[in-house]
Amino acid sequence: MGAGSVEKALVLYDSKYGNTKTVAEKIAESINTKGDFETNVSHLEGFDVKKIEGYDLVLIGSPNHFGRDSKKTKKFITNLGGVNLSGKKFAFFDTCLKRQEGRATGKMEKRIQSVAPDVQVISPGLSILVGGTKGPITEGEIVKCDEFADRVVRR
Ligand SMILES: Cc1cc2nc3c(=O)[nH]c(=O)nc-3n(C[C@H](O)[C@H](O)[C@H](O)COP(=O)(O)O)c2cc1C
C-alpha cells in the first residue's frame, strides 16, 4: 500500500455467549488506533463472502467448541473456497477454556489453507481464555488483543 492509503480490515466472528464478539470488537478497536486502517466488524453468519474481496486483511474468530472452531465458523471458512482471496492476509482467534490454546485457531488455519492456498496467514492464532462456558473473559487476557492487532497491522 502506498503512503497515505487506507487499508481495509474485516473482523468476523461467531459467538454463542458474547465473549468472542467482545474479543472481535476489541481487536477492531485496536487496529483502528494503529494507523491507516478502516475496520469493520460483523458476525459471520449471513455475511456475504463476496464482500471479502473488498478487504486487505481478514481476521476470523470462533469460540472453541469441542476442541475446534464452531460449526458455523467451519461452514463459513469452507465456503471461502468459492471466492478469489489471492494475496489476502488472514489471521485467526478463538476463545477457550484453559489448555485448549491454539486448538481451534490451528484448525481454522489448516482449513483456509486447504480451501484457499493462495491466502497468507500472517500471524499465529490468538487464544483468549474464558473462565467458564459462558465466560467471563479471564482477567489479563483482553490486553492480548492489542498485541495481536499490533502483529497483524505490521505484516
Ligand atoms: C458446545 C460447547 C462445547 C465446548 N467445548 C469446549 C472445548 O472442547 N474446549 C474448550 O476450551 N472450551 C469449550 N467450550 C467453551 C467455549 O470455549 C466457551 O463457551 C466460549 O469461549 C465462549 O465464547 P462465546 O461467548 O463467544 O460463545 C465449549 C462450549 C460449548 C457451548
Question: What is this structure, in a nutshell?
Answer:
The chain has 155 residues and is of the alpha/beta class.
Describe the structure.
- This protein is α/β, with parallel strands linked by helices.
- It has one domain (7-154): Flavodoxin domain (Rossmann fold, 3-Layer(aba) Sandwich), CATH 3.40.50.
- 31% of the residues lie in helices and 25% in strands.
- The protein has four helices and seven strands, in the order E-H-E-E-E-H-E-H-E-E-H.
- Strands 1, 2, 3, 4, 5, 6 and 7 form a seven-stranded mixed beta sheet that branches.
- Helix 3 links the parallel strand 5 and strand 6 (120-121).
- The model has no long low-confidence stretch (mean pLDDT 95).
- The structure holds flavin mononucleotide (FMN).
- The site of flavin mononucleotide (FMN) has 18 residues, from helix 1, strand 3 and strand 5.
